[in-house]
Design a protein that fits this description.
single chain; alpha/beta; seven-stranded parallel sheet; about 15% strand
Length: about 240
């Protein structure tokens, strides 16, 4: 069974790839093959896995990426994990329209179109899993992340709606769609948070620490398994109890 992971080169995507590598044949995405080279060296059996690279901020590249999913992986595709995302933090007062368009393209349109390609495959087979990686800020909101937060909230609503759509289209099926919303996780993205802001966020986390990418990956592995067969349409929060 093949699992596609977008944004697999670092952070949460990398941790997911390393966690799933022994159980599934992976199709790993990054914007370029060069970005995947460090991860490729960490894989125990790289010959079992494949690369499918594209700049998801480019509409034409996204279109070709989705075509490749349908043409190359239809027989064996079991799951898609839409993890790729970008944040361009700035007050909305000064946010360039180009930045807004780019976040909407990568964080929302790309998961929509990739899920559409996967859903066509899963619909014909009656089985498959789509996981969209959101964020706690999609629920809480966050200053200077208006667009990013809106895209992550959109992923949660999209996941719930697509899960219902599968049920409306098919009488009997095993297609599951849900979102996973991490809190503040130790990645390059959170590494840019100023120390004063980090202390403020830590005060709102009952666990009193940032999460680890591996902790998100462990939940993803469970959600893909048969043990999670009745979890569908949910927003799974991995956030240390943040309030």
């Amino acid at each position: 069974m093949k699992v596609l992971i977008t944004g697999a080169s670092k952070g949460i995507g990398r941790a997911i790839a390393l966690k799933l590598q022994e159980r599934y044949s992976l199709v790993l995405h990054a914007s370029s093959p060069e970005n995947l080279e460090p991860l490729w060296k960490e894989l125990q059996h790289p010959g079992l896995h494949e690369q499918l690279c594209a700049d998801l901020s480019d509409p034409e590249a996204l279109k070709n990426f989705c075509s490749a999913i349908k043409k190359q992986y239809a027989p064996d595709l079991y799951a898609v994990i839409n993890n790729a995302g970008i944040t361009l933090d700035k007050s909305l007062l000064f946010q360039p329209e180009g930045d807004i368009d780019r976040m909407l393209q990568v964080n929302l349109k790309a998961p929509f179109m990739i899920s559409k390609a996967a859903f066509k495959i899963f619909h014909s087979r009656g089985k498959g899993v789509i996981i969209n990686i959101g964020s706690c800020v999609g629920e809480m909101g966050n200053a200077f992340q208006c667009v990013y937060a809106a895209t992550k909230a959109g992923l949660a609503a999209f996941s719930k709606s697509l899960a219902r759509e599968a049920g409306a289209l098919l009488q009997e099926h095993n297609i599951r769609v849900f979102s996973v919303s991490p809190g503040y996780i130790e990645t390059s993205m959170t590494g840019k948070i100023p120390e004063a802001d980090r202390a403020k966020y830590m005060g709102n986390i009952p666990a009193k620490r940032l999460g680890k990418p591996e902790e998100v990956a462990g939940v993803i592995a469970f959600l893909l398994s048969d043990e999670a067969a009745y979890i569908n349409g949910s927003e799974i929060k991995i956030n240390g109890g943040i309030v």
